[in-house]
Automatic annotation (TrEMBL):
This is Acyl-CoA thioesterase 19. Pfam families: BAAT_C, Bile_Hydr_Trans. GO terms for molecular function: fatty acyl-CoA hydrolase activity. One of its GO terms (biological process) is acyl-CoA metabolic process. SUPFAM superfamilies: alpha/beta-Hydrolases. The active site is at S242, D334, H369. Residues 20-151 form the Acyl-CoA thioester hydrolase/bile acid-CoA amino acid N-acetyltransferase domain. Gene3D superfamilies: Acyl-CoA thioester hydrolase/BAAT N-terminal domain, alpha/beta hydrolase.
Amino acid sequence: MAKPLSCPLLSVCPLRCMVDERFDVRVQGLLPGVRVTLHAQLQSEDGDYWEGFGHYVSDDSGTVTVSKDASLGGSYKGVEFMGLLWSMKPIPGSRTGLRFRKKDVYTPMDVHISVYKDHLNDGFREKPPVASVLAQRWYTAPGIQRVNVTEKGLKATLYIPTGPGPFPAVLDLWGGGGGLVEYRSALLASRGYVALALEYIGRVDAAGKPYQVNNEYFEAAYTVLKQHPQVCPDRIAILGLSFGVSVTLGMAAYSSVIKPQCVVCVSGSHILPVNGSLADVFAEIKKNVQNTRYDEEKRIIWRDLLLPIPDDPSKKVEMGRIKCPILLIVGEDDQNWPAMESAEDMKQMMERAGNSHLLSVLSYPGTGHLIEPPYSPHCRASNFMLEETRKKVVVLWGGQTEPHCHAQEDSWHKTLAFLEQHLYRNTSH
């Protein structure tokens, strides 16, 4: 028979914080040796519910402390400070292929944290919790300014920190999903950087016809950022994910306009013809479309579309031309891009060219393609809209939940340290 609960007190500290900050969850006032389930739930802006939960037993003082005590089961196991959040999955019965992404960065993620009697795996909505708390997690610190940018034909959003400035800046490039993705830029601005989120895939002209942007588009974005009165013009970084890595490395190597102080490349590749453009990367992928694979659940695996890494140097960014520090972030279970093979080839190219001292590589086992800010739910596969056919497919991104989420936390803090080192502390290479 389950031991009775006395009058438990559930606390979350801090109750209100940034999404890249930890919180401490604690239950006090239990009897010793009582089995409880801690449950976290949030509702996405699309109306879908996500949940994570852990099974705990109170200690001799009748307390459960998530940062110190092991979860014995649930959606995560072991001593996991933020397991309630990163282990979240859509609740049973949800739509398939979901990926959690924040759209309105000026509203918080409301996380409902509750304590239930005994060790539960389901039926949370049917059972009353013995205590509940609402925690708020934010992508924007108070006072962050958001500005739409349309000059020079751009479709972009600028996030500006509070304070007199000028500030270092980051050009923020997402990947093949297209659209204007802003939550990482909002978070960077909250950490002291002017950040420009740029839409560059899936652009349509005035007649609604899709078109591919060229290199001048990225140079225009960099110029707008550089000329902004709140930006230190000699302290600009580029942060690229997936296709954004191809752009970042190509621009750093060949552009006479773009001269970043440092670059961060997440889950991408240097396969891009010498002085080529994004259109060339798409062309290479289309040429190898027969290399598309599917897993046992018919989810698309695209990593082979850029393999094998070409020996022909004219088909790769000349890494020896890059004169600024590079941070490569690699998921070793990336099923979407050959990030690990590309990183190894880039390292060899830079060793031969004599500039490998500029390269730092973070390579994470069990980690997939979508390396997000910390404590974000791991997305192993999700729905994806093919740009040309507008057909919806399910893409396998890869990664195992626990190592992937630890990699998200580690790589984010190392990215912030890298940016601080090269944009705040260093004024020259």
